[in-house]
Structure formats: C-alpha cells, structure tokens
Amino acid sequence: TMPKEPAVLRQNILDTTAAILACGIDPKKCFLFRQSLVPEHVELAWILGCLTNVPRLLRLPQWKMKRASQNNEGTVGLLTYPVLQAADILLYKSTHVPVGEDQVLHLELAQDIAQHFNKKYGEFFPVPKAILSEL
User: Fold this and answer.
1) Residue 130, SS3?
2) Which alpha helices (H) appear in the chain, and where do they start and end?
3) How far apart, in Å, are the Cα atoms of 101 and each of 79, 105, 106, 131?
4) What is the pLDDT of residues 23-34, one digit of tens each?
5) Residue 44 CB coordination number (10 Å)
6) What is the band of 135 on the pLDDT scale with cuts at 50, 70, 90?
7) Do residues 98 and 125 make contact, with C-beta atoms less than 8 angstroms apart?
8) CA-based, 20 to 30 A from 30: which of 23, 69, 93, 125?
C-alpha cells in the first residue's frame, strides 16, 4: 500500500522467492508464482469491493492504526487492502487459511464477503476457516 522504487520492488520479489525456496518449498510439488501477474486477483477484488461497505472496512483495527501513523491520511489502497486479501483467499476457493492473531479480523471479512456473495449469487465460494498459528 506504499509506493516502492521499481528496483527495490524487483529485488524484494527475488529475495522473497529465495527465502521461500530456502525454507524447503519444492517448486516441483507446488506452484510458485508472482501474484501481481495474475489479473484475476484484482478483478475479483474489484467485484468484492463493490459488495463491501465502507463502514465495515473503517472498523478494522489495522486501518485505524496505520491511518493514525500516516497523519490520518490513509490511502484508498490501505483501506481496500483487506478486500484484496479476501480476493486472494476466495479466488482459489480456499477452505482453510493459516493466519496469525493479527489477521483474524481480515479473515472474518473474507468469510463475511463469501457469505454475502453466496447469498446474493448462489453457493460459489467456500467460507474459509482459520488455522491459527501457535507461537
């Protein structure tokens, strides 16, 4: 949600990919791809954003905290990022999502959006359940 220098962004992508591979992820057994190259993520985020009301997003604590740290000038990208996260989850019809405590409310938003979409258009998205990490 914050502008990055293109060279820094490219390096971050390479560094993240290297870290994932270093953790033992086997690209022969799983798909490894750059999400920004999959237009369906933002397309679904747009559709879901049209079904999500602004007051619901304004109540998320991450919005309140980050907006405060940005001198109360939070961006639209910051406000709608949780809808993009919901699209990331729902696009793949995920049934379970590993999350930390700080992301539970964002997953609840994804659940609410899935239920709202299903009620309006028929059963399409599974309602994802949280897998809480134990730290």
Assistant:
1) strand
2) 6-22, 39-49, 54-58, 61-69, 76-91, 104-121
3) 20, 8, 10, 10
4) 999 989 998 999
5) 20
6) low
7) no
8) 125
